[in-house]
Structures are given as structure tokens and as C-alpha cells.
Amino acid sequence: MTLATTPRTGPLADLTPGTWNVDTAHSTIGFTARHLMITKVHGHFNDFDGVVSIGENPLDSTVTANVRLASVDTGNADRDGHLRSPDFFNTEVNPEMTLRSTSIAERGSDYVLAADLTIAGETHPVEFALEFDGVSTDPFAGKTRAGFEASTEINRSDWGLSFNMALDAGGVLVSEKIKIELDVELILAD
């Protein structure tokens, strides 16, 4: 993939260069997996942080994020406990999932965020389809905010998350493919 190096034009030109922090109260890190191959289970993480450093050329910006895996929440305490166990995240040994960007490039009217994703001690490259939702000033604190949506699909076995069970009717208990969806609001640091 070639990294575009355009001047400050286009939608990202609205972003002020500098440090932007993830507003965790207005952001979601979610995922979707298939259960029994017939339905989808949705989950998210409640404890995370992130920083986006916007460059003079927005395509030279960097993203870092840390997710505390023990904060997984699928709405079912038994399932969440299983996800924290050595069968999946093994949160006592691997407490965090991290994301470190490697590039941002234009793709049509949107963008692609390439990054290294580390889960359970394994790091692999991923690409997120990235949409910029704009910049606004919040009416309460006067802070400058920006919004993004990003999504990708990974094969969890690539990160050693290979627990599964064969089903009598065929198929498996949990899909190998996991969709990751991010809705992120950033706040420009003072």
C-alpha cells in the first residue's frame, strides 16, 4: 500500500495538528462473533484509552490504543468469564490488547488505517476501513472534538485464540472470524 502525501486538503484538513485523546465516555470498542453458526453475539470493552497525534499532514498521523481485556462485556457473566479464561484472552497473563498504527491512506472518499494489533502476546498487521465523521465544538466545555468510525475483520486463530467445539450438526461453537467495530470521539488536548 502506498501512503498518500497530499497537502492539508480534504476532510481531514479540519483536524488541528496536535494530541487528541479518546473520550471513553463517548466511544465504543465493540466486536461481533457468530455463536453456533446461527446467531451473532455482540460485545464491547469498558476499559480502554487511546491517543491520536495529528500531523501537519493528517495522513502522517499516529494512533495508539490500549484495551484492558478483563473489561470484556457481552451481557452474559458466564460468557465474559470464559472469554477472560486461558481458553481465550487469558487476562491474568495478557491483560491488554494494543493497537499501534503504521500508516493512514486515502481510499476513495474514506481512509484505511493500517496498524499492528497485539492480542495475547501475538502481534499481526490489520487494516481498518476508516471514516471521518467531522469536527465540532462541544457546547458545555468548549472543547474541540472529532469523530471516527473504523471496522475490520480478523481471524482470531491468528492470535492463538483457537478454542472451539465441533457441533453435532456440523460447524463450530464460535466463529473464527471476528468483526471489530470502533466508534471513537476524540478531544483536542489543551
Structural class: mainly beta
Taken as a percent bin, the fraction of beta residues is: over 45%
Largest sheet, order of strands side by side? 1-4-5-7-8-9-10-11
| Mass-distribution shape | globular
* Known CATH architecture: Beta Barrel
CATH superfamily: Lipid/polyisoprenoid-binding, YceI-like
Total domain count: 1
Name the helicity range: under 10%
Order of helices and strands: EEEEEEHEEEEE
Low-confidence parts: 1-9
Radius of gyration: 18 Å
Largest sheet data: 8 strands, antiparallel, barrel
Which CATH top level class fits?
Answer: Mainly Beta
Average pLDDT, to the nearest integer? 87
- Looking at the structure, the CATH topology is Lipocalin
Tally of helical segments: 1
- Compute the number of strand runs: 11
First CA to last CA: what distance?
A: 34 Å
